[in-house]
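Hi W., the zinc ion complex you wanted:
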Amino acid sequence: MRIRLLGTAAAEGWPGLFCRCEACARARALGGRNLRSRSGATVDGGFQFDLGPDVYLHVLAGYTDLAAVEHLLVTHGHEDHLAPATLAMRREPFAHGLPAPLTIYGNHRVMERVRAAVADPSALGVRLETVRPFQSFTAGDATVIPLPADHDPNEACLLYLFGRGGRWLLYGHDSGWFPEPTWDYLAAWAARHHRLDVALVDCTNGPAPGQRNHMGLEAASRVRQRLIAIGAAGDETRVVVTHFSHNGGLLHEELVARAAPVGLEVAYDGLEIVLD
Ligand SMILES: [Zn+2]
Ligand SMILES: [Zn+2]
Ligand SMILES: [Zn+2]
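Structure:
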């Protein structure tokens, strides 16, 4: 399994689109891993999590080949995770040569937003599949289980447990501390001799406290500890924190200095995680 982080920022990006704060000024000055676009990830090229407003930047950087993505797993309908007007470019004269047929999985809100942006998804080679928490499904040769997130009470925001080729990824944002039914599911899943290879965990708040709707380093560290306690993760599991807001203030290396001692890795745009 090959996981590629597309973007690693919260909704405003980092530097924030209109922001004049110190954290954004430092990110602009330092560049590199301190520049964060809106979040998403691909797995093995054919699978993508979320289609945010910075996807063209991700295409330019070579992080994703959108024409090759066949399965798009959308976590929720917030603007920073779903920019559905992008899909209108999947046809002549904007795109030559048929892109791979695309299935979009998500909650009702996601489907509403896609339908509002593109009148006839099937004319774009797009199939819509509404998915529900705890109802496992197959996406190509991957097994996917949507799990409830703690994020926005106005829609059924989802985390995804994603398995392919014997490897397992937990796509764990946007979310606060996972709801108890999600923990119960993960514990039962682990009891059936499953274990995560990688967990991507929400760290919007950075060093700041709080674990409702989003998390920070402290809560993400406790997520790792609980995953280990229930047997869903081991010391070898890579727990990677992502979706950072400038309001956290810590730049990349400062985050690394706090995350590494508690067993967390810090994501950056373009990070590639390769599992043999
Ligand atoms: Zn977000
Ligand atoms: Zn800022
Ligand atoms: Zn969100």
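The chain is about 20% helix and 25% strand.

W.
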